Amino acid sequence: RVKKDLIQLGLKEMIKIGKAMGGEKETFLGPAGLGDLILTSTNPLSRNFQFGKNLYFNAQNLRKDIKERRITVEGFDSSWALSKLGKKYKLDLPMINEIYKVIYKKTPPEKTIKNLIKLAN
Q1: What's the confidence (pLDDT) of residue 119?
Q2: What span, in angstroms and rounded, lies between the C-alpha atoms of 116 and 41?
Q3: Where in the numbering of this chain does the Glycerol-3-phosphate dehydrogenase NAD-dependent C-terminal domain appear (predicted)?
Q4: Residue 45 is part of which domain span?
Q5: What are φ and ψ of residue 25, in 5° steps?
Q6: Distance between CA 69 and CA 71 in Å, rounded?
Q7: Structure pTM?
Q8: Which among 90, 29, 105 is positioned nearest to 60, based on CA atoms?
Q9: Per-residue pLDDT tens digits for 14-55
Q10: DSSP 3-state helix, strand, coil percentages of the chain (rounded to 5)?
């Protein structure tokens, strides 16, 4: 149930950002939106899935690794860009803000997981 709730929260935030930028809700409900979200957040072979898992268990080294080795992980750079877009459009994006805090503000992942579960319920 928690996984479903987190995906739903992520989708809501995707739609908020998309609509603020002139997009349509329906775009995010199709394969390019919801389909991609489900696949990349639940498939253990996905780079974003692996990034999230590794970030939880080894945050400090992972940040350094990504910067030094220039590893491509959408979630790493996207969280920064989405946080900035949220501020620009004055959007409430709690999930994106929590992810941003772990990656860029070095908030302990355990704290963020607890916050995200509360937000998703």
Answers
A1: 83
A2: 14
A3: 3-113
A4: 2-120
A5: -50, -40
A6: 6
A7: 0.85
A8: 105
A9: 999 999 999 999 999 999 999 999 999 999 998 888 888 888
A10: 80, 0, 20
